[in-house]
Write a structure and sequence with these properties.
Elements (H helix, E strand, L loop, with lengths): L3 H31 L7 H17 L8 H10 L6 H90 L21 E3 L3 E4 L9 E3 H4 L5 H11 L2
Antiparallel strand pairs: 1-2, 2-3
Helix pairs in contact: 1-4, 2-4
Amino acid sequence: MITRQQKEEKLKEVRECNEELKQIRESKEIARQSYGVDPDSQEQKDLELLEKYQDYQKGVQTDDFSKEEIDRLKELQNTPLTDYQTRALQLNAQRDVILNKKDRAQRNVTSLTEAAADAKLDQLKSQDMQKAQDAADELLDASDKDAFGMLIQDAVDHIDEKQEEEKEKAEATPELELPPTEKPVCPICHKGSILRGKTAYGCSEYKNGCTFRLDYATYGNNLTDMELNAVISKLKP
């Protein structure tokens, strides 16, 4: 788990690095003045080129070198360093170490920040999902009877239409006689008939409080009256 303390420790490390870098800059300026080196002198320009090369070797900077800079570096290979340049390069080496340390700390801060943000996002998502689930459960609990009633009413309307179609079809083909089938009766209230809704079989007495229900997911949605009677008979105590 990402803690605020971890992030604060890395931020403190970055601040400490900045303070050390400031001290090194001041030490380099003091050294230049102590050795009496002019800022525009060739000695200073050569030092700045040597520092750039030193930074490049340490991975602190990736700037390209011009042809003139490369030629001058080759010349400096055979030229002894002055005392000032030696001291300044020592300080610059310390600066490179601190810069690398600061870069690692800053990357850690970024990683910790991103990890904390991801963790917070996951937490919010989890909370939102739980709230949504709770709301859905409450909605289902509150509207279960009404929703079921609406489904049954739709089923009644559909059955009425279907029965009318079957009646017309039977009148058109009187030679076909189907064996009589007993209409399934609700095993709970023993009054209502079994209706086919959108998602389940239900009792026609649902408006009077009957709770009989057979889900299509369990029993299928194409049971005949005979098959329904068989299922209901097994459910009776």
